[in-house]
Amino acid sequence: MRILLGFMWLLHFLPLPILGRLGEAVGSLMFLILGKRRRIALTNLRLCMPEKSDSERHAIARQHFRAYARSIFERSLLWWASEARVRSLIQVEPAVPQAEMEAGPTILLCPHFVCLDVAGVAARVIPLCSMYVPQKNEAFDKLLRHGRERYGPVRLVTRKEGIKPILRALRDGLPYFMLPDMDFGEKDAEFVPFFGIPAATLTALGRLAATTGAKVIPVVATYLPNYQGWRVRFYPAWENYPGDDMVEATRRMNAFIEERVREAPAEYFWTHKRFKTRPPGEPSFYD
After folding, report:
1. What's residue 243's pLDDT?
2. Distance CA 231, CA 90 (A)
């Protein structure tokens, strides 16, 4: 692991176009040799985009592996490059909503696109709260914490700690950087459509917003063309959210994410088993 981390450290000296192309080359190789993950991605794309041909979905899956590997290589910049260099590569649209974030409880909804860590950097104009998964390898865990903490104060909360530290952070004025669009099982989830397929989806976004009165501001990070860096877009705070129906609030979240995925389909996390948890009696999609 230390040798791998040393190699990653060396990568941050490379110009971004070289680093990006190197990552994409590794991603092309991963697409060929990681058969299980390739099948998961193709299954997800078949379910979510039935209107596309097999060859079109195959091309998106291959592009996704390239984009994902590229994001791993470019993480070396986020971890070790100067903050000035990193921020010079981030194009924020229209602007970081700092005044809104400081005006009251805020949830930053960040879907699982491959550049999501860049969205976290762009949002760090004030201290934040974020969920953190401790790593088994001590050196890697230390590095991940360093990557999260080097841009300013951040309150990291593990899933085992539950919701109370998040509620406390929101009440303390720390925006919560939230990534709820994965299959975490049936607990605290409802089956709501994602691209028309019932998907076990956490209702936590609506429940947190209702409990704390927090506004929800989506933020999505994608690649700029020609290896120029990253685009981070902050969307207007959702109006009349969550309302009284938490299932409908969760459906609204999924519909928003669908729209963003269609804008940059290769950059969404297709290798995750998004439909692993099925309604009672329904067979698995991934067998």
Report:
1. 96
2. 6
Amino acid at 201: T
139 vs 195: CA distance, rounded Å: 39
Is residue 218 within 8 Å of 100, Cβ to Cβ?
no
In this prediction, residue 259 carries a pLDDT of 98
- Asked if residues 219 and 233 have their Cβ atoms less than 8 Å apart, the reply is yes
Cα angle, residue 84 at apex, residues 79 and 87 outer, rounded to 5°: 75
| Whole-number Å distance between alpha carbons of 26 and 39 | 18
Name 76's Cβ contacts closer than 8 Å, sequence gap at least 6. 8, 9, 11, 12, 19
Q: Cα dist. 119→15, 33, 230 in Å?
A: 21, 30, 9
Q: Rounded to the nearest 5 degrees, what angle is found at the Cα of 82, between the Cα atoms of 97 and 134?
A: 75
Instruction: Render pLDDT for 266-278 as a digit per residue (tens, 0 to 9).
Output: 999 999 999 999 9
Shortest CA distance to 179 belongs to which of 104, 54, 269, 246?
269
| Residue 244 backbone dihedrals phi, psi, to 5 degrees | -95, -15
* Nearest one of 154, 108, 208, 150 to 12, comparing CA atoms: 150
**3-class DSSP state for residue 107?**
strand
Written as one letter, the residue type at 54 is: D
Which residues make Cβ contacts (< 8 Å) with residue 32, sequence separation at least 6?
none
